[in-house]
Amino acid sequence: MCADLLDVESGSRLLIREAKQGDWDHPSLLQDYFHSAAPGVGVDVEITSIQALLKRALVPPVLVGVFAEAADGACGGLLLEDKAWDTSMLSVQVRNLTVLVSAPSQEARYATALHLITNCLRNHRELLGDCIFVRIPSDDPALLRALAESGFDVLVPVVTLGKNPSGYSKVVLPAGVELGEVKRCEIDQVQRVSAVAFRWGRFSADMRLPREGVERLHGTWARNCCLGAQADHVLVARDNRQVLGFIALKFLMAHEVRVGSIQQLCRCANGAAQYACAAYV
Predict the structure, then answer these.
(1) Reported pTM
(2) pLDDT per residue over 115-136, tens digit each?
(3) Statement: residue 1 has pLDDT above 50
(4) CA 69, CA 50: separation in Å to the nearest integer?
(5) Is the pLDDT of residue 69 over 70?
(6) Is the Cβ–Cβ distance between 113 and 146 less than 8 Å?
């Protein structure tokens, strides 16, 4: 891929080229990511998953990696990943986009992100698949603007919440309802609940995706959680033998738990918010 040399701001030139592994170690690449996240675990939760992606940025399922840098210190990177499991469930080719930018101003941040996205969409059409999803912090208007101008639609807000596990809150359950670990004989019920209960997830919110594929994806995810492939524990609320709902828990770090509910996935950390966006190509 040939490098692009573009104007970003007056007096600033942006070089966009194919990324090298060392680019992802740039010290400022993540410094502007997720300002809304609470210090400590809140930031760690978000940064850890990005860092894990950057460590494998040059190998499949990453399809495209480009990097941008300017003389004024602005830099940014873009990764396009194949989401094979989502594709098999939805019967459409699904891609995931990650855009990281560090720039001295909001305008430079917007311009850098826009050029990275445009470069990817223009030069790699054969790899774009049918739809592209991206998650960004909700406190990043420059990145949101760049994505919107590139054809991405906002689907759902994703809120990250946190709770101190040392604080115990007693919950009084309705008469006849009990909580407990999922039983093998309940897995089919959990799968059926998950298939129809994800009303606010990014796939459910996108009416361009086939409904049967969305239900299949959520139901299969829930079954995998019950079997231990996607979660460490699954707790169900049951009334006699009827499953009313469930929570799936996955331990990602020593101080973090990811919680998946019957409505959407929520990461347990200190408060932050994101947008989930999508584009069809």
Answers:
(1) 0.76
(2) 999 999 999 999 999 999 998 8
(3) no
(4) 20
(5) yes
(6) yes
- Cα pseudo-dihedral 13, 137, 77, 43, rounded to 10: 120
Cα separation, 118 vs 76, in Å, equals: 13
**Pick among 3.10.310.10, 1.10.10.10, 3.90.70.10, 3.40.630.30: CATH of 4-159+275-280:** 3.40.630.30
- Phi (first) and psi of residue 196, to 5 degrees: -115, -5
* Distance spanning both ends of the chain, measured CA to CA: 21
Residue type at 238 in one-letter notation: R
CA distance 64 to 198: 31
Whether residue 281 is predicted with pLDDT greater than 70 in this model: the reply is no
Q: Give dist(CA 32, CA 53) in Å, integer.
A: 17
Vertex 69: Cα angle to 68 and 70 (nearest 5)? 135
Helices (H) and strands (E) in the chain, counts: 7, 13
* 234/39: higher pLDDT: 234
User: Would you say residue 185 has pLDDT above 60?
Assistant: yes
Name the H helices within the chain.
Answer: 41-55, 84-90, 106-123, 141-149, 187-197, 202-205, 211-226
- Tell me yes or no: is domain 177-271 CATH 3.60.20.20: no
Q: What share of the chain is helix, strand, coil (3-state, %, to 5)?
A: 30, 35, 35
Q: Does the structure show a pLDDT above 80 at 203?
A: yes
Please spell the DSSP secondary structure of 45-106, one letter per residue: HHHHHHHHHHHTTTSTTEEEEEEEEETTS-EEEEEEEE-HHHHHHHTS-EEEEEEEEE-SSH
